[in-house]
Amino acid sequence: MQRGNKNGGLNNEEEFVTLFNKSSIKTVWTSSILSKKCELSESYLHFKRQKTPTASLVDQSKTDVLLTFNPNPEIRHKISLKRGQGRPTSGNVSETYALMLSVFQDNHSTNIELSNLLDKIFSHLPSGIITSKWNVTQLKKDITNPDPEFNRARDEIRQWKEQYDICNTLWKEMKEKHGEYVRDVFEECLSGKLKFANNEGTASFVIDIDIVNNGFTLFNIIPLTHSNEKLSKYIDTLVKNTNSPFATKSSRQNSNSPYKIWTRFL
After folding, report:
1. How far apart, in whole angstroms, are the C-alpha atoms of residue 205 and residue 198?
2. pLDDT at residue 80 above 60?
3. Which residues contact 198 (CB under 8 A, 6 or more apart)?
4. pLDDT at 9 over 60
5. Contacts of 26 (CB under 8 A, 6+ apart)
6. Is residue 30 a contact partner of residue 18, using CB atoms and an 8 Å limit?
7. pLDDT given for residue 83 in this prediction
8. For the purposes of burial, counting CB atoms within 10 Å of the CB of 253, is it exposed (0-12), middle (13-18) or buried (19 or more)?
9. Per-residue pLDDT tens for 228-258?
10. Other C-beta atoms lying within 10 Å of the C-beta of residue 8
11. Distance between CA atoms of residues 129 and 121, nearest Å
């Protein structure tokens, strides 16, 4: 069966909720959308503000939908929906710094070699924003353009690319020498337990689904609250497939706005 869309993200949580609540299980469980901004933990916010002093107190929850047990509504499961090989997260420099430093402080703070690797990554990782009339794909093309703004933005992208190559090489070294840390980073990407301090933004399950023919197929239900074989295999796949996580991302508000280009992790 063809799995999901190209980038693996679930296009519409509403579709899942609607289909779930039409199924026979609705007599026991009810699904509802939670997806919203939730308060960050104090330590996570502290790390984010080391890179971005104006970072918000809240961020998008890992939880997409709630499953509520009808006989006792206080029993709820917080679900992160993934469609195919969806990215576990995607963050800018301050988010990535908070993610990696939170995991390091939580369970790896005595590892001096790992600390040095993290310092090297963040000393090279480009921060800030490049503003351009052209998106990243256009700027990467080896073409002649007389517009000085094109050449300025392209030169900046190329300089950033050199730094990403260094960071991605350090990431591969980290995978080889500090595999448990990398696995913990991915687990935090999925659950957000350090980011949200187990508030409603923290996911307790990942449900890997696809939606076909007006129905949904549950490919995998993975608990995030304790160690288990399903979670281990899921993270194994993420670790194996993630070799160059540092790159650029671009977006714009509308077709008349310039692109904003920044560093992303995953």
Report:
1. 13
2. yes
3. none
4. no
5. 20
6. no
7. 76
8. exposed
9. 999 999 999 999 999 999 999 999 999 999 9
10. 14
11. 18
Angle between helices 42-51 and 93-107 (to 10 degrees): 130
pLDDT in tens, 209-234: 766 666 667 678 999 999 999 999 99
Q: What is the 3-state secondary structure (H, E, C) of the chain?
A: CCCCCCCCCCCCHHHHHHHHCCCHHHHCEEEEECCCEEECCHHHHHHHHHHCCCCCCEEECCCCEEEEECCCCCCEEEEEEEECCCCCCCECHHHHHHHHHHHHHHHCCCCHHHHHHHHHHHHHCCCCCEEECCCHHHHHCCCCCCCHHHHHHHHHHHHHHHHHHHHHHHHHHHHHHCHHHHHHHHHHHHHCHHHHCCCCCCCCEEEEEEEECCEEEEEEEEECCCCCHHHHHHHHHHHHHCCCCEEEEEECCCCCCCEEEEEEEC
What pTM does this model have? 0.91
Helices 148-177 and 112-124, axial angle in degrees (round to 10): 170
